[in-house]
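Standup notes, structure subgroup. Blocker cleared on the iron/sulfur cluster input:
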Amino acid sequence: MPRSDEQSPFARDGPALEPVPISALAQYSYCPRRCALIHVEQTFDENLYTLRGRLFHERVHEIGEEVHEKLRIERGVSLWSERLGLIGKADVVEYHYGPSGDEIPYPVEYKVGPRKDEPHAPVQLCAQAMCLEEMTGKRVPRGAVYYHRSRRRREVVFDKALRARVRAATEAVRDLLVRRLVPPPPNDDRCRHCSLRESCLPRAAGEPERLAALRAAVYEAEEAEEEP
Ligand code: SF4
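Run returned:
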C-alpha cells in the first residue's frame, strides 16, 4: 500500500468544502468555544501540559516506518477526506495483516496523560478512520487511543453512532470556521481543566453585565493613561 502522504489533499481541482482540521473535532466535542478560540481566533496559551503534549507528538511522528511479523507501522501519516472535507495527521497507523495477506488499517491516537474514558478522542480517531477508508478503499472497523502515562490502550469500535458524531461535528466546525463564530462559554466544570481559561474568561464572558463592567474598566484605565 503506498504511503498515504504521497499525494496532496484536495490537489486536483481545489477543495470543494472548507477544510476542517481533524484535531478540531475533539476540541469541538470538548467545548465548541475552545474549538473556535483555537481555530477561528488562533488563540493558543502554551503551558507545561500543552508543551509536553506538543513535544510528545513531535517525538511520536519522528520515528518513521517499522515492519513486524504481524503488522506494519507508519507514524505521522497525513490524512484527508475530500468527501467530508477533512485534513490532518494520524500519530500512528498500524496495518494489520489479514488472512490473505491484505493490510487492514488501524489508527492509533496518542495521548500524554493516563487512561480516561472520555468521549472526545474517539471522535478524532473515527475521523482518521473515515479518511483512511476513503484514501485506501478499505473498511477500517476499529482503532485505539494510547495513553502514554498509564501505557494502556483503549480500543474504539467505529460504529454508526460514532460515525454520525464525526459527520455532525465536521459540519458544526465548518460552520464556525466559515462564519467566524465564537460561541458563548458553557462556564461549567470543563473550564477548570481547560488551558485556555485565561484567554477565554468563561465567567466574565458568560455574564454580559460582568463583561460590560470589565470593558468599561479597561477603557477608563486607557483614558487615565492618556492624560498628560
Ligand atoms: S475555559 Fe471553559 S468555556 Fe472557555 S474554552 Fe475552556 S472549556 Fe470552553
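Discussed briefly. Helices lie at 22-30, 32-39, 48-62, 120-136, 160-179, 197-200, 202-205, 208-226.
Next: hand off to the docking folks.
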